[in-house]
Structure formats: C-alpha cells, structure tokens
Amino acid sequence: MGGPYWDVPVGRKDSKTASYELATTNLPTPEEGLISIIAKFYSQGLSVEDMVALIGKINPLNQTKPKFLVIEVKTI
User: Fold this and answer.
1) How far apart are CA 16 and CA 14, in angstroms?
2) Can you give the pTM of this predicted structure?
3) Who is most buried in 4, 6, 11, 68, counting CB within 10 A?
4) Which bin fits 48, alpha (ψ -120 to 50), beta or left (φ > 0)?
5) What CA–CA distance (Å, rounded) separates 65 from 58?
6) At how many degrees (to 10) do helices 34-43 and 48-55 cross?
7) Residue 24: which H helix or E strand, with range?
8) Which element (helix H / strand E) includes 34?
9) Is the dihedral of CA 45, 49, 52, 54 positive or negative?
C-alpha cells in the first residue's frame, strides 16, 4: 500500500506454548470453601483484594443468579 512497514512481535510473554490443561488447573469452583479459593489465588501470587477484583461483586438488588462463585471480602 506504499506506507511504512515494520515487524511487530506477537504472542504471549509468559509462555512459549499453550496448554488447555494448565490453563484450567486450579480454577475455583462454586462448591469450594473460601479458604481453598484464597489459597488458589495466593499460589498464583494474588492477594485477597486481587481475588475480589477478578471475581467481582454482585449487586444485592440484582435478580439474576451468578453462574460462578462470587465472594465479597471486606477488609477492616
């Protein structure tokens, strides 16, 4: 097309391969307890605050039921 061109590297920086098994390992389930879920996030280097931000918070007025475990943790 006549414009400038340069190669741009693409792909993941945390791994050179992809694995469905590794990607789905240690995901929290709705049946797990809070301590178990916190431990899974902690083992990935994440805090309780990170966990809450990633899982999210459901509005108490929301009439729909979440399909995934939702936890609200308040720090004192």
Assistant:
1) 7
2) 0.49
3) 68
4) alpha
5) 9
6) 100
7) none
8) helix 34-43
9) negative
